[in-house]
Automatic annotation (TrEMBL):
Keyword Zinc-finger: yes
Descriptive protein name: RING-type domain-containing protein
Segment forming the signal sequence: none
Domain RING-type: 134-175
A UniProt-annotated Pfam family: zf-RING_2
One annotated GO biological process: ubiquitin-dependent protein catabolic process
Keywords assigned by UniProt, alphabetized: Metal-binding, Zinc, Zinc-finger
InterPro entries: RING_finger_E3_ligase, Znf_RING
TM segment ranges: none
One of the record's GO cellular component terms: nucleus
Single GO MF descriptor: zinc ion binding
Keyword Zinc-finger set for record: yes
């Protein structure tokens, strides 16, 4: 874009008007270019949408057993479009299956606690005389009661800690990972 301006007088007001005119012309030019780019993007997106709709229509016609004509869209045969559509269909089915499985898992609360083979490795003992209490059930330990000591050295009633560790791998007091500690001890 070339702007030719002739300066007739050298007054400051005239120079301001000339600069304003140049600025206004450049601004209009920029707006025109942006509008042109937006129009081109709209045309491109409409073309892409049309191609997708044609592809979907071809696949639906093929699946309904209608005429078996060979279509071509921009030099790409119907077979390629059909393969692409089938891949998308399979991916959608896999995602639906995963969502369904996640819902079922949440509904039935799959156990994510400590496996039984590791629970058997926990240290069991009988309680002696003590004023301490189980922090799961908040009851005092009784003499000769069966207790379990976790790797972090916290102790609990056997029945309390068994039910706790079926749904969690963490110690109720210090939140240390019991399963990881048992795996390390096993090595």
């Amino acid at each position: 874009m070339e702007i030719v301006v002739q300066i007739k007088s050298s007054s400051i007001l005239d120079i301001k008007n000339i600069l304003f005119t140049i600025f206004y012309q450049k601004l209009n030019y920029v707006h025109f270019n942006i509008d042109q780019q937006i129009q081109q993007q709209k045309k491109n997106s409409q073309i892409k949408r049309t191609k997708k709709l044609i592809m979907i229509q071809i696949v639906e016609e093929r699946s309904e057993g209608q005429q078996q004509q060979q279509y071509e869209i921009d030099g790409v045969s119907e077979r390629i479009w059909e393969e692409a559509a089938n891949q998308y269909r399979q991916e959608i089915q896999q995602l639906q299956l995963q969502l369904w499985q996640n819902s079922v898992d949440k509904m039935f609360q799959k156990s994510n606690g400590v496996p039984k083979k590791y629970l058997q490795k926990l240290k069991m003992m009988k309680m002696g005389k003590s004023n301490r209490q189980c922090s799961i059930c908040c009851n005092q330990f009784q003499k000769d009661e069966l207790i379990i000591q976790l790797p972090c050295k916290h102790i609990y009633h056997k029945s309390c800690v068994d039910s706790w560790l079926q749904s969690s791998t963490k110690c109720p007091n210090c939140r240390s990972d019991v399963l990881e500690a048992l795996k390390i001890q096993e090595k």
